[in-house]
């Protein structure tokens, strides 16, 4: 690779922005941890992997923790902006790490769901969890604030619905989000269920046809109306969340008592209720702008205004409107989960 031969240093994108602001180079831990070349135990880059990729170890700096001061704004930027010589902080550079920093939990016994086009479900732990079972279940260990580990799994989120909406808009049917929710509420429950992470839904030309194909292959009724497609997607997501939460419970070093839903999907009250029904524990929704809030509070911690992530979370819990969803219709959702699992088995067979 010609660029590597000429390179003096490799910077991840958040660190590049910090460099442009300060002239100082650092490597922030949370973003570096998603590179696949950082050892989650030693928190250092693996020289053997770098060598295999043809990258000199000298091109990468040892990671620094989020909240580290990178430097001060350069003279030229200070003059141009008129803000003076301000410190620049290496925040949790990975957006999910900033979002998890903003989970308004009051104790460590929680799971989180960062909900949007794609969802990420996991727990916050002091040490990585690496064994044959976590490998088989395809969980990852990524960096969090204060040197914690975000043990999590990627899940397809609202991607299915967003792709359906594009199709419907192309054919002249435009729905607001409240309309979509209302349509789902009026549809008959548990008629058709899909595994949102099935390869059929990765990037199909037609999402509605992909859902129809899945239902046909698993011998279920094919959704006929837009409302039926929406209901199918919402229920299937909630049941997939239950499936992944059960995986987490099998390896978590503590009992999980609550699920915190953050990000844009936290505003979907119907899906939040479905999720609570499916998983059988409280769901706490909010904040929706978790990444921005977590970013700001890491800077506040660096300035000495808060002591640690737990004080940050207390501030968030007292400042943001949160909504709690209590499980309902437990028997119905347990029966639906059995049906959901059977559809996955039929698809495999």
What attributes characterize this protein structure?
15 helices, two-stranded antiparallel ribbon, 9 strands, alpha+beta, 349 residues, seven-stranded mixed β-sheet
Please provide a written account of the structure.
By secondary structure, the chain is α+β, with helices and mostly antiparallel strands. Helices cover 45% and strands 13% of the residues. It is built from 15 helices and 9 strands. The protein has helices spanning 2-6, 13-22, 29-32, 47-53, 75-81, 95-101, 132-136, 159-170, 177-186, 207-217, 226-251, 269-279, 290-302, 309-319, 330-348, and strands at residues 68-72, 87-90, 110-114, 118-125, 140-143, 149-156, 258-262, 282-285, 323-325. The protein is globular.
Short description:
This protein has 349 residues and is an alpha+beta fold.
- Give the neighbour order of strands across the main sheet: 5-6-4-3-7-8-9
Structure class: alpha+beta
Tally of strands: 9
Average pLDDT over all residues: 96
What are the segments in which pLDDT stays under 50 over at least 5 consecutive residues?
none
What letter string, H or E per element, gives the SSE order? HHHHEHEHEEHEEHHHHEHEHHEH
Helicity level: 40-55%
How many DSSP H or I helices? 15
Profile the largest sheet: 7 strands, mixed
What portion of the residues fall into strands of 2 or more residues? 5-15%
* Rg over C-alpha atoms, rounded to the nearest angstrom: 22 Å
End-to-end C-alpha gap: 44 Å
Backbone shape: globular
Write the layout of secondary structure elements.
Blueprint: H1 2-6, H2 13-22, H3 29-32, H4 47-53, E1 68-72, H5 75-81, E2 87-90, H6 95-101, E3 110-114, E4 118-125, H7 132-136, E5 140-143, E6 149-156, H8 159-170, H9 177-186, H10 207-217, H11 226-251, E7 258-262, H12 269-279, E8 282-285, H13 290-302, H14 309-319, E9 323-325, H15 330-348
Helix pairs in contact: 6-13, 8-11, 9-11, 11-12
